[in-house]
Amino acid sequence: MAMPNPMLTEVIPTPSNSSTPQSGFPTSLVPTTTITILISTSEAGTSSPTCTVPPSAPSIAPSRVGYPDPEAPGGIHDSSSEVSISPRNVTIFEYSIPPSFLPLNTSNSGFPPLCALEFRMPVCTDLPNGYPCYDFSGLEQEIVANSGINFVLRTDDDMATWDDTELHQVFPGENSIIGTFECAKLAGSYGGNRGISWEARSVRNFSLEFLHAGVGDSPEFQNGIGAWIVPCM
Asked: Which of the four pLDDT bands, split at 50, 70 and 90, describes residue 184?
């Protein structure tokens, strides 16, 4: 029996005279227009042939996010938790993976477990109270123009294998596996946390601005939109 194509509905703000602050997050409600777009099963799917992430799995938020700046420490200008991915802006996601996160067994044998970079994009009505909605170039633009994001591996203490050129498309209401990598090392092979970071770059005029949840020592929001490192089960 043929399966129907899933549908995603996009709500597009109608132009108005309301202002938008420099942070890029709208502060006032505006009239909206709703467009429903049919998406094929392969485009809408979020499963990965190499990784399954249960809802209860632990996750690691970025230790910091920012944009490239050769004059800043580590080459990253800290932007707090504000993310901007657009034709003009690149955002760096930096992570610190502790040795205790999915270690190998005590005999130090076997293959290291896999982790994934998972992008979560809840619909705005599912975000916590007070969490600002994201500014998104839209489903229609993303699908028709085949636009999206390149996640380019920037630094990694362990030199993971990664495809920098793959196009990743993210959709409201979906969790997307961006890619997988080996995320544990033999006990005693390194003394501290493993550092790894990616640059998120716009492809074909894709644009997404949002407040990343969980960033830093005392984040205002623990859950929301953003990219997390998660274990593959």
From this structure: low
